[in-house]
Amino acid sequence: MADRPADNGKRDIILKVKDLKMHFPLRQGMLQRRVGTIKAVDGVSFELGEQEVMGLVGESGCGKTTVGRTLLRLYDPTGGEVLFHRSDGSWVDVAKISRKEMKDLRKEMRMIFQDPFSSLNPRLTVRDIIAEPLVIHGEATGSATTERVAELMQAVGLKPAYMGRYPHEFSGGQRQRIGVARTLALNPRLIVADEPVSALDVSVQAQVLNLLQTLKDELRLTFIFISHDLSVVEHICDKIAVMYVGKLVELAPTDELLRNPKHPYTEALVSAVPPADPLIKMERIILEGDVPSPANPPSGCIFHPRCRYAKEICQEEVPPLVNIAPNHVARCHFADELELQGVADVANEA
User: Fold this and answer.
1) What is the pLDDT at residue 344?
2) Residue 181 gets which letter from DSSP?
3) DSSP symbol at 298
4) What is the dihedral of CA 193, 194, 196, 199, to 10 degrees?
5) Which residues on adjacent β-strands are paired with residue 83?
């Protein structure tokens, strides 16, 4: 298993998400009449400690990016609470504050976007891209802005001499570093990283992941790391939350979740992680059928149409999130009974 920083125990809570919902209207026809609701996020709850990194994983379309955007009020949530602990010691509900208050809060809550090219304005120089948050929030002017940009570029491993260049003159990894520098400009406390390495080559992925880890330790940052790749999440995250069709189906510390998954969907995701030892033969679990539409989710357990352990109750009753062990919850009727395969099981069988 990849080396990750040891968990130092109990942390002060910086974020509390309670029953978060983000529903979009489904419209059809020339008059765009509402014919249904897309439940992109449907009742997600978790807590995040200071300087903790939580991975948010799942297949494309499961709602993980929507969670990240809703937390930062890029979408106005349909329901729920997003309680954030500010640097001044006060708590604020991000879901209910005004736009003016939200603008001020954006200094402490920032986002790294997935595509390192489309997220950068091709008409602006690197200096202007990184300085943009400083200008908008009135944090620096004139030569002070240039000095701060140079400092940020050095922090992410770029030469300040390049600040006069444009995004197209950089590689993918360098562009992502520019995006990271822009995110750090206002000294945030919480960063939502939306698949920040998925568009990069494997070797460059490692460089960016190591950079994020270094910045987290030096600047005391807290991360929500969104990804579809468990092998990437394993490298950097303290705990992992697994999503499926808008719902949280399992949440546990990283090592615990990978070695001892308690939801059949998590078991399938873990089986897709290639083992570090090429001699280990891993049984890949292939899920049958397609991911259900969040506009028309199945009755009962949302995973039962694809679950090889499903029984009659799974079709009829929605399973609650149950505590399996300290800090380990799963949404399955048989979470306490199933013996699911984790990475340790595969190594032992070999």
Assistant:
1) 53
2) H
3) P
4) 180
5) 16, 93
Q: How far is CA 209 from the centre of its chain?
A: 14
Q: Where are the domains of the chain?
A: 13-244, 259-349
Widest distance between CA atoms in the chain: 68
Structure tokens at 244: 């499926």
Give the C-alpha separation, 88 to 71, whole Å. Answer: 20
CA angle 13, 4, 111 (to 5 degrees): 55
The mean pLDDT values, 10 residues at a time, for the chain of 350 residues are 47 94 92 91 96 94 94 95 95 93 94 88 95 93 93 94 95 92 95 89 85 92 93 90 96 94 94 73 81 91 94 94 93 92 56
CA distance 148 to 44: 38
Do residues 64 and 226 make contact, with C-beta atoms less than 8 angstroms apart? yes
Cα distances from 50 to residues 16, 96, 222, 350, in angstroms, run 11, 22, 6, 39
Q: State the pairing for strand pair 33-49/222-227.
A: unpaired
Q: Specify the DSSP class assigned to residue 335.
A: T
Bridge partners of residue 84, in order along the sequence: 15, 92
CATH topology of domain 13-244: Rossmann fold (3.40.50)
CA distances from 77 to 20, 73, 145 (A): 7, 7, 34
Count how many residues are written for the chain: 350
157 and 211 in contact (C-beta within 8 Å)? Answer: yes
Torsion (CA) 86, 89, 95, 101 in degrees, nearest 10: -70
